[in-house]
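Lecture notes, unit on protein representations.

Consider one protein chain, 281 amino acids long.
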Amino acid sequence: METYIKEIIRRALDEDIQSGDVTTQATIPNSVFGKGKFLVKANGVIAGINIANNVFEMIDDTIELKILIPDSNRVSIGNIVAEVEGKASSILTAERTALNFLQRMSGIATLTNTFVEKIKHTKAKILDTRKTAPGLRLLDKEAVRLGGGTNHRIGLFDLFLIKDNHIEIAGSITSAVEACRNFQQKKNSNLKIEVETKNLEEVKEAISSKVNIIMLDNFTSDLMRKAVDLVDGKCLVEASGNINIDNVKEVAETGVDFISVGALTHSVKALDISLEVEQIR
């Protein structure tokens, strides 16, 4: 995992720098040292400061970054979350990549926390989805976790999630679940099985198939309550589809265990954070 994240950072730096930071090379001598402050310009939840630190380390391992407000903490306008000190040229070269990670992850954590706070009086947990920025999934999902959310499957490899197209091609929920169980036996797998349902009849079929999780896709709140009553604790229940900050409380109060929200990562607004640098010698 750590190696994979470092590769994400390396690719981001390569994308930005390529043959060199020509502006910094032209204007900032290597002998100049600077100090920078990460200044928060919007209220939210900080996430990604450790990733930002890794960016600076990859550019220049002599740079020192002092974290003042660790990841997952709430921040307010005017807070300084970290200070960085070292060669000014190295700080400026790493600046944008470090901020890109920090701003995006903090935006995701902030939005996630807003959802989590809305439903904290219920048992429901907020889940992310696979609707992440290509190549950034691990960081997007880490940001969800830092915001108080729960990670759903990481990818196609760590959960059987039988969706409508699988059901259509397999012929039925029952057939699709049986195929997954046969696959489990062949591969000696203990991965859980989740199935997407569109109505109460499909919920009943999923219950009969003894799956681990039933997803209620685009159900009304009334239908969710009926589905939860039908399940009656036989498996976990996830609500999904068109869930937003205005209706998430109502959804959570139906008794579902999980609420998946694609907007956490596919429609995130970056948290406004800047890096202000000054020369110190």
